[in-house]
Amino acid sequence: MTAFAFGGDPSPRTTTASCAAALRGLGEATLTQLATATGLSRPTVKERLAELPDLVEVTTGATHGKSPTPSGGRPASRFRFRSEHGFVIGAEIGKHTERIIACDIGGRILHIGEHHEPQPLPGSERIGGLRSRLGRLVARLRATHGSWLGLGVSLTGGIGPDGRISYSPHHPDLQGRSPADVGLAFGDVPVIVEHDLNAAAVAEH
Fold this sequence. Notes:
The protein is an alpha+beta fold. The protein has five helices and ten strands, in the order H-E-H-H-E-E-E-E-E-H-E-E-E-E-H. The model is unreliable at 1-6 (pLDDT under 50).
């Protein structure tokens, strides 16, 4: 079994993240199994899981058959990671090609799409098209996979330390502008914009 250590930092936020990561990896587990996976005590695990009502579903022990103990006691309750709570989307805007991938928070792929523009277009028009395609995709996924939790976008060119697009060889109209300025803002959805080579390195890692 994989251990989900929390690096010696016992803060509630860190141990809560450790419990969530362990349950995500296991999919479904008992309190004892999660305590073993995280190295935390059973009471601590139970307390931390209670802080994640959107991510954790508790199923009664009775739904899992007979007691595994000789004494015939009540079967242990189990905890399930709710992958359907939400989804994240990654998008790549290349010179002519746009790619979109979406997955739920359990890592299951929900959508892979590609769009090709035969003629060069300004960056503003490319992002306008992306927004339209994202709008249709998000409307479809929200019906069955909960909330849109994050968007990552890779662009050709550079992103400066201030988060603005510092260099865009194929879409110079985007240079010097922030992601929000060019239309890469979607309400409260967190957005990360990165150089395409850096994004590729993260994906490979």
